[in-house]
Amino acid sequence: MKDDSSVHTAGTDTKMDILNATVELIREEGVACATLRRIAEKAETNLALVNYHFGCKDKLISKAIGKLVGTFDDAFAMLEDEALEPLERLKQFFYRYLSHLQQYPGLAKEMMDQSRLILCSQHEYARYSQVMKTEKLVGTLQEITRETDEAVLSGMMAQLYGAVFYPVIMHSYMNMSGDEPAPDIHLPELEQQIEMLFNLYFHKYTQKP
Fold it and tell me: Which of 37, 55, 121, 209 counts the highest number of beta carbons within 10 A?
């Protein structure tokens, strides 16, 4: 008779192998190249086990992206650096976070595409909030603005994310192959974009009385 614990461990190992293989494919070649077939090959398993453990590609990619984003240590460390003013902590977080996203083709676009899974599941949203340190982000924003209404703070955070994500996502779309060449659009460097955004968005909170 097989030991149940060994069967469970083998299944857990296979699931982690699949997840790690997906993360590595995204790191090496971008989200578009992380097909189920290639994931199975890299994990040295079969497609049936990929489907068994994750149900569908969307769920697997979502978990892999969460794991990858969780490794952006230097970005999240900025939220903990009490030596910096709250505004500077938030600014440095976004700059470093987006710098990482730019290293992985299509990752920002895929994160937005995966948002329907996050928002439609309490479990996925809780996991996303934990990975993204949402509570710490909102707390930092509250320090800057002195706003106490949670709905207003959530709205402001959504606006900031939209503003900083859009250029990265647009760049991802422009780099996708198509029938016609992408238009030649020049944007400021990432650091300058974030500086411009923060100067405009937080103008009234940084004015001295």
Answer: 121
Contact 66, 129 (CB under 8 A): no
Residue tagged 């009234």 (tokens): 204
- Secondary structure percentages of the chain, helix, strand, coil, to 5: 75, 0, 25
How far apart, in Å, are the Cα atoms of 138 and each of 87, 103, 117, 120, 186? 12, 26, 22, 21, 32
Residues 49 and 82 in one domain: no
Residue 48: give the domain boundaries. Answer: 4-67
What is the pTM assigned to this prediction?
0.75
User: Alpha helices of 30-145 — where are they, by DSSP H?
Assistant: 36-43, 47-54, 57-69, 73-78, 86-102, 107-113, 115-119, 122-131, 134-145
Give 27-76 pLDDT, tens digit per residue.
888 888 889 999 999 999 999 999 999 988 888 988 898 888 888 889 99
Distance CA 42, CA 82 (A): 42
Burial of residue 21 (CB within 10 Å: 0-12, 13-18, 19+) is buried
d(CA 161, CA 166): 8
Q: Rounded to whole angstroms, how far apart are CA atoms 97 and 74?
A: 8
Answer yes or no: are the C-beta atoms of 90 and 140 closer than 8 Å. Answer: yes
